[in-house]
Write a structure and sequence with these properties.
The protein has 438 residues and is α/β, with parallel strands linked by helices. The protein has 3 domains: 47 residues, Transferase, Pyrimidine Nucleoside Phosphorylase, Chain A, domain 3 (Up-down Bundle), CATH 1.20.970; 247 residues, Pyrimidine Nucleoside Phosphorylase, Chain A, domain 2; 91 residues, Pyrimidine nucleoside phosphorylase-like, C-terminal domain (Aldehyde Oxidoreductase, domain 3). The protein is built from 18 helices and 13 strands. The model has no long low-confidence stretch (mean pLDDT 94). It binds uracil.
Length: 438
Amino acid sequence: MFDMISFIERKRDGGAHTAEEIREFVLNFASGAVPDYQASAWLMAVYHAGLKGEELKEFTLALAQSGQTLSFGDLRIVDKHSTGGVGDKVTLLLVPLAATCGVKVAKLSGPGLGFTGGTVDKLEAIPGFQTHLSSERFSDQVRRIGCAISGHSADLAPAEGKFYALRDVTGTVPSLPLICSSIVSKKIAGGADAFVFDVKCGGGAFMEDYESAEKLARALVSLSRALGKESMALITDMDQPLGEWIGNSTEVLEAVSVLRGEGPKDVKEIVINLAGAMVSIDSELSFEEGCALARKKLEDGSALEAFGAMIRAQGGDDRVCRTPETILPLAEKTHTISASEDCTVQAVNARKIGEGVKRLGGGRMSLGDPIDLSVGVRILKKNGVSAKQGEALLEILYSDDAKLADALPYFESAYTFGKANEPAEETVQRRLILGKIG
Ligand code: URA
């Protein structure tokens, strides 16, 4: 009989658990035999005392094996995980781009979390696109065309989902071992052989400073390797939103424009770097050679073709690759925020922009809320750019006047200004890739 009280006390007093105890605990929690109040006490003990190397490994494996696990047979699969940001449409482009570079990508994605958007929500904007594939269809598609993106099924690592919900209401989300086991267990259950992590850092990310982002990146790489998975992490800037558009349809629009050789440079550069990382952990090529290959495939239109093939394979309308404005739902009402005097933009606070888009209806205020896929904002002036009095800074697409009124204070307070012609040189020279681990 599993003794949960002793288990909690051991962690409370800084002791270590055996592999067997951890497996029993996770099984008992998943089945409901361990009640939430005892699991919560243990989570808080871990928050303070941590989990040592072997414990963390066993806990992660136990979470991964708590439900269905995917397997791709002889295919070597690479997956990518972003810790989440504002305007982070990277997955939409990266998955087909990496596939054109010869990487087999089976990407499991989630809905938006907090003030950050989710890939599954964005893909829902493409008419007909099936965001939840059966495991057979998922693996068959990867085998046939090299890539697929699917929402997490509730059967994958179900104990992780149960722990996550409990952490969310017990103040135990920001614990390094709990974050790492949560992320890596889902990747392991998803059947990939190698992972690339995009650890976002800055005001629009969960990790606001470089030190904590680097700690997380190192911990993710070392846990993955301990579990036999090749892995690499890039630490990327999320002080201001990525690209110009934030929303769901609007981010698909921007992803297509980058795939067509237009669109913002920051999105293009991040995607190329992450694709370079995926190529380099999957082949003999170096990171730099991987980036060069990815740049070529993005610029010669191969990645756009692969995006179209993925959309068709998942039942979506591939006209989104040619005439996205006529295919995607885009809100008809617009509101513009303009400069009240001549100025230079010193900073655009990504978190406030994310919170604003959520209030427009582009994200969920509570679990299960429906999303308005058509709303979004376009940032016309970013850090370091000058604006004349009356010039537009931000364009808002919205559907509901009351929601716009709720969102406006977030957008209006997102900007910090300096005097006109006082260039914020250090921000003009934005560094996108802040670090590389592994
Ligand atoms: N994302 C996850 O999947 N898990 C965490 O614990 C934090 C961020």
